[in-house]
Predict the structure.
Amino acid sequence: MSVLKLSSEPWGRSPAGHDVRRFTLASPTAEVRVMTYGGVITGVRTPDRQGVWNEITLGHDTAAPYFDRATASFFGALVGRYGNRIEAGRFVLDGETFTLPRNDGPNTLHGGPEGFDQHDWAAETREDEAALSLTLTRRSPDGEQGFPGALDVSVTYRLSADGTLDLLYRARTDRPTVVNLTNHTYWNLHGGRDVLGHVLEVPAEQFVPVRADMIPAGGPAQVQGTPLDFRDARPVGARIGDDHEQLRLAGGYDHTFVLGGEPDAAGLRRAAHLREPDRGRTLEVWTSEPGVQVYSGNFLTGQPGRAGQPYAKHWGLCLETQHYPDSPNRPEFPSTRLDPGQEYRSHTRYRFGVAGD
């Protein structure tokens, strides 16, 4: 008998009038919920060292708040076509300038105001003894939010019997375009307080400095000697209040860390390890992407979440595996270009666990 269980339930109607469903993928050590609107991870539950199960992400109890970016706050969102920022909402590809809607001051953030998290997705499931899979698909039409090319996208959420969650992104285009997909889950392994006491390790020797508008200020810089050095694990809040230009500009951490080292057999590099000392939960992130954006919830303002819980500043930590910000305008950065005949492939793995006392 399988230890895995997959179920679904109706979860309202989207602004476009489509039925929204929420799927639950459950194993003995993790439970993941995903809805068809926005590809949103609406929740993840895991046990602590005492065996008590709790929610470890930020989110809402119903679908409706996710339909408006003002209340959705990117909680658990599937982000595209381009995660992070594009300067001045434009880029040039093969000599043609493409203009995007600006939704972050003078820049475009997370695919524009109607990015992938604000659309309905088609769902297909698969079950076997080893894993449960939910695959969401949609076609992003040519010109959507200003991006060129019709883009056929699929994202598979796969939960294995050991509780490992894999996110597998795929995309094909009929015209040269740029693609940078990620997931914007806010993690809180405790649930009852902010994440400043969470212990974070990021095995990166470099990060991408930013300007006041959060656009890269230049090429990667060394983390050594800065409060952005997480090569040795330390609490998120240990140096978040340091008088350092990058922390002042971002209001905390909101930076891309450059991942190095050799990939494992699956083509993944270790991106981050997060531990909550009190309850013992851990999260390890591996990815095929060249960077991970560490965001310490600097712009959370106390908006209500599940059961009316206010999510104040630093109440969640995002670990967004992705390419660097503004890469379409930065030829020195790893390319985000996708051409016809190519397939965009990205893989991120989340391993949930429990540390000893």
About this structure: The chain has a mean pLDDT of 97. The CA atoms of residues 83 and 110 lie 4 Å apart. The radius of gyration is 19 Å.
